[in-house]
UniProtKB/TrEMBL annotation:
Residues 121-140 bind DNA. It comes from Hyphomonas beringensis. This is HTH tetR-type domain-containing protein. Gene3D superfamilies: Tetracycline Repressor, domain 2. The keyword Nucleus does not apply. The keyword Ribonucleoprotein does not apply. It comes from the Bacteria. Keywords: DNA-binding. Residues 98-158 form the HTH tetR-type domain. InterPro entries: Homeodomain-like_sf, HTH_TetR. GO terms for molecular function: DNA binding.
Amino acid sequence: MAVRAVAESHNLKKSELFDLIWQKPMSVLAPELGMSANGLAKVCDRLNIPRPPKGYWRSEAVSRDVSKPEALSDPDEIVQIGGACRHERKRRVRYSPEERRRMMLDVARQIALSEGVHEVSLRRIALQLEMSEAQAHNVFSTREDLLVELAVEEVEAYEAARLVAVERGGSRVAKVVMSSLSRLRLASEQGAIFQSLMRNSKVRQRVNERRKPVRQAASEKHVSALLREKQVDQAEALASVSMLTALVIRAGDLVTSSTITLAEAERLCIPVVIAAALDRESA
């Protein structure tokens, strides 16, 4: 590993560095500590020390509207800035963009499941993966971009599992019933994170746009089957498919939010689904 020597060492409490960061611009403070402004910013990010936002020192309006945070974790932790002693530089592992994307989504999912979607941030993920916030933004430009990708992954995994369940059905009626049962059970088991993500209107809009061609293709398939099996016009067939789909999806949402139990959702939905499927078959 490479070895680097630094001219002077500064041992500070984390709270002391926090105060200094808010007393003078990074471009002024960093040279006093024998560092570059960018290097000092990375130290602050690694230690989870909040920094003044961009424009804070140049704009009175910004500095007036932004207050120094009051809370700081581990304020008495000793931080070494620079150092006359030799120290080893960590060997960095280079990951491909796709590897970084996968790692970030996995961490985001863990945070969302354990603490809630509101705790997911690019900065939090970068800290956990020991990468810079700039690297995180190179993968996902915004937090919203990351949440959209996470939501799309959730719904695609959900749909893949549902299709596997459908294939276990023998007759067409059995396949329809298996599809509905699978939707409800998956909502019970793993719907909470998806529902939380979709509460964000911008995320919901972008996910719906991404999924629109897939939904349209599935709807057209069901409508075509109805038109073949029953003497109904296209508008009635589309309404029938839309209503049954909406019923099962809404019941799944209620299960996810614990408004009703899975057993109650199955008792409410499955008889309606079976009746509709049998009605088509007998037509």
